[in-house]
Design brief:
Blueprint (H helix, E strand, L loop, with lengths): L3 E7 L7 H12 L3 E7 L9 H15 L5 E10 L3 H11 L5 E5 L7 H6 L2 E3 L8 H19 L7
Parallel strand pairs: 1-2, 1-4, 3-4, 3-5
Length: 154
C-alpha cells in the first residue's frame, strides 16, 4: 500500500477548483501521506510555446525527487480503467513514493516526459491542466480505496 503520494504541478489552482481539490486532498490524507508541490507557471504573453515549455520543464526537472516512481500525465500516455490504475498505483509505490507530474496549459516538455518512469493519460478527452489535477486527486483516492478492498463511496 502506498505510504506517500505527491503531485508536482505547474501553477496554482484557480479559486473555483480549490474546493474540489481540497475535498480529495482531505480524503487522501486519511489514507496516506499526500502532498502537492507547485512550480511557477510561465506566462504565455509574448513568449513562444517552446520557450514556455522549456522554462516550465526546467522547473519541474529541478523539483523531481531522487527516489520513487515518476508518473507524468500526458494525453499520449497509457490509459487504464480504475481497477488497472489501482494496480499500477501499487506497482509504482513499490520503489518508494510516487510523484505525479502535471504540466501547464501547454503540457509537459519532452525532457520531463523522458525523465518519467511512465506516461499516464487520464482520459482520451482533452482536459485543462487544472481540471486534470482535480481528476487525478479523485483517481488517486479511488485507486487507494480499490487497492484496500474498500468501497469507494464516502
Amino acid at each position: 500500500m502506498p505510504e506517500r503520494l505527491e503531485i508536482l504541478a505547474v501553477g496554482r489552482l484557480d479559486a473555483d477548483l480549490r474546493p474540489a481539490f481540497a475535498h480529495y486532498e482531505r480524503l487522501l490524507a486519511g489514507l496516506c501521506r499526500f502532498s502537492v508541490r507547485e512550480v511557477r507557471e510561465v506566462s504565455l504573453r509574448g513568449r513562444a510555446a517552446g520557450e514556455v515549455l522549456r522554462d516550465e520543464g526546467r522547473r519541474l526537472l529541478a523539483a523531481l525527487p531522487a527516489d520513487g516512481a515518476i508518473v507524468a500525465l500526458d494525453a499520449g500516455g497509457r490509459a487504464c480503467d480504475s481497477e488497472a490504475f489501482a494496480a499500477r498505483l501499487q506497482a509504482w509505490c513499490v520503489a518508494g513514493p510516487a510523484t505525479f507530474v502535471v504540466g501547464g496549459s501547454l503540457g509537459l516538455a519532452d525532457e520531463v516526459k523522458a525523465a518519467a518512469h511512465e506516461l499516464l493519460s487520464l482520459s482520451p478527452l482533452t482536459l485543462p491542466h487544472q481540471l486534470a489535477r482535480v481528476v487525478l486527486a479523485e483517481q488517486l483516492f479511488r485507486g487507494l480505496k480499490i487497492a484496500r478492498g474498500e468501497t469507494y463511496h464516502h
